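Q: What does the assembly look like in three dimensions?
Context provided by user:
Components: two
Sequences:
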Amino acid sequence: SQTIHQWPATLVQPVGSPLSLECTVEGTSNPNLYWYRQAAGRGLQLLFYSVGIGQISSEVPQNLSASRPQDRQFILSSKKLLLSDSGFYLCAWSRQGVRSETQYFGPGTRLLVL
Amino acid sequence: GDSVTQMEGPVTLSEEAFLTINCTYTATGYPSLFWYVQYPGEGLQLLLKATKADDKGSNKGFEATYRKETTSFHLEKGSVQVSDSAVYFCALNNFNKFYFGSGTKLNVKP
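A: Here is the predicted structure of the complete assembly.
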């Protein structure tokens, strides 16, 4: 069966510090990968998605970047965090090429920038 | 572009009450439709899905029917429990791009 991991679970960082959040998927190959941000009490905002190694699409201009160094690894980064980067970050994956495919979510990382 | 609109919350119900959370969508082609549930502090879990018109998705007493004529996918449950308290998201998948509604918080009181 497939599983998706995210770490850390919780992170408190000062403004201006760098960020690296990691997401890995097990039990499948060549997945589509996604990063979402969820502000407190709000819906999901798609940040990045990737259909393969080194292929990243950005949905909104922002202070963040994403990389996919390996097939099942997706990393969200920032060089200098802003207060507005606080939120709940969710990684998700889906199978490629299947119209009816479900998206599967990781447990999330709660980021607080102070 | 494609989008999903769902009713704003919070929705507060007493235990055993009937639940409806409205969801409508805009999409080209023939998307698949989903309901996800998010419990406090957790990621989203798939609740149910439907892949074509008139399909009914069901799980844990929840149901939703894919209505192409009204572009809707309303979530229903006949008798809610306190444990159903969570945030519910309607979503669609169109050509492997996913679009989510803003979420509806459900509070069920004993």
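Follow-up: Chain B touches chain A through 25 residues (CB under 8 Å).
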